[in-house]
Design a protein that fits this description.
Layout lengths: L14 E17 L5 E19 L13 H4 L21 E25 L2 E16 L2 E6 L17 E5 L2 E17 L10 E17 L3 E4 L4 H13 L2 E17 L7
Antiparallel strand pairs: 1-2, 2-3, 3-4, 3-5, 4-7, 5-6, 6-9, 7-8, 8-10
Length: 262
C-alpha cells in the first residue's frame, strides 16, 4: 500500500550546491630561424563540488534516511490532513553530503615551418604533441540523521552516520600529429581553370588510458582504519583499459576561379 502525503511548503527539503574552481594557464610562443614558429601551452584546472540536501524515507528502518520509526513511535500521524495538521516533520530530516573533486591537466606543443620550396610555394610542415589527463579524485558521500524524541540522543538508524566511498577514476590521452601542405599550383604558376591546387597530408596517433572503478562501498559506521583498508583494496581492483588510434588523412584544395574553392 502506497500513501502519498502532501507537506507544507516550509517542510520541503532543499538542495545546495557549492563549487570552487581554480584555473592555471600558461604558454610560450617562439619565433625560430628560417620562418619557423613554435607554441607550447599548459593548463591545469581543479573543481571541487559539494552537494547537500535533506533526506528521509518512511519505507525502512535500517538504511540511511530511514524514518519508519516516526510512524510506529507516534511522532508522525499519517491519518490526519498533513496540510491542516502541521507536524514539523522537517526537524527529522537527515543531511546527505556528496563531495566530488575533479582535476584536468592539458599540455600541447606544436611547430610550423617550411621544409621545401616548390614552384608554387613552400611546403609547410606542422608537427605537434598533446597530453591530456582527466581525474576524478576519490570522494565520499556522508549522511547524518538526527535522533528521535525519546531515544536519548541515539541515532534514528543503527548505521548513522552513513559513509559511502567511491574510488577515483581517470582518463588520459597522448597524441602525436603531423600535417603537410603541398602547393602544386598557385598565383606563381597558375593556368586556365586552375588558379590554385594544394594537397594536404596529415596523420594522427592517439594512445588512450582509462582507469575505472565502478564500485562504491558502504561504510557503517565510518571508521578511519576501515576506510583506509577499503581504499587500498579498491585501488587494486580497478579496471584498466588501453587502446590506440591511428588516423591518416588526405585532402585536396582546388581553386578553378577566384571566389570558388573546392
Amino acid at each position: 500500500v502506497f500513501v502519498s502525503h502532501p507537506l507544507p511548503a516550509d517542510a520541503g527539503t532543499t538542495m545546495e550546491t557549492t563549487a570552487i574552481s581554480r584555473l592555471l594557464k600558461g604558454g610560450v610562443h617562439l619565433h625560430l630561424p628560417n620562418g619557423w614558429e613554435a607554441l607550447a601551452e599548459y593548463s591545469y584546472s581543479n573543481v571541487s563540488t559539494l552537494i547537500q540536501y535533506g533526506l528521509m524515507d518512511f519505507n525502512n528502518t535500517t538504511n540511511f534516511g530511514a524514518q519508519a520509526p516516526l510512524l510506529y513511535k507516534g511522532l508522525y500521524n499519517p491519518f490526519v490532513d498533513s496540510l491542516l495538521n502541521e507536524q514539523k516533520i522537517e526537524q527529522y530530516y537527515g543531511t546527505w553530503k556528496f563531495w566530488n573533486p575533479t582535476q584536468l591537466m592539458d599540455f600541447n606543443a606544436r611547430a610550423n615551418g617550411p621544409i621545401l620550396n616548390l614552384p608554387a610555394g613552400d611546403v609547410r610542415l606542422t608537427a605537434g604533441v598533446e597530453a591530456r589527463l582527466n581525474l576524478m579524485d576519490e570522494n565520499y558521500q556522508i549522511g547524518e540523521f538526527p535522533s528521535l524524541l525519546g531515544d536519548n540522543g541515539a541515532p534514528n538508524v543503527s548505521n548513522t552516520p552513513a559513509h559511502q566511498y567511491v574510488g577515483g577514476q581517470k582518463q588520459g590521452v597522448k597524441s602525436l600529429f603531423l600535417e603537410a601542405r603541398v602547393p602544386v599550383v598557385s598565383a606563381r604558376n597558375q593556368v586556365p581553370l586552375v588558379q590554385g591546387l594544394e594537397f594536404q597530408l596529415a596523420g594522427r596517433i592517439e594512445r588512450f588510458t582509462v582507469i575505472t572503478n565502478p564500485n562504491s562501498i558502504n561504510i557503517y559506521p565510518y571508521r578511519l582504519n576501515v576506510a583506509t583498508r577499503i581504499t587500498n583494496t579498491t585501488k587494486e581492483g580497478r579496471n584498466w583499459f588501453k587502446y590506440s588510434s591511428t588516423n591518416p588523412t588526405l585532402g585536396l584544395k582546388y581553386t578553378p576561379v577566384n571566389g570558388l574553392v573546392l
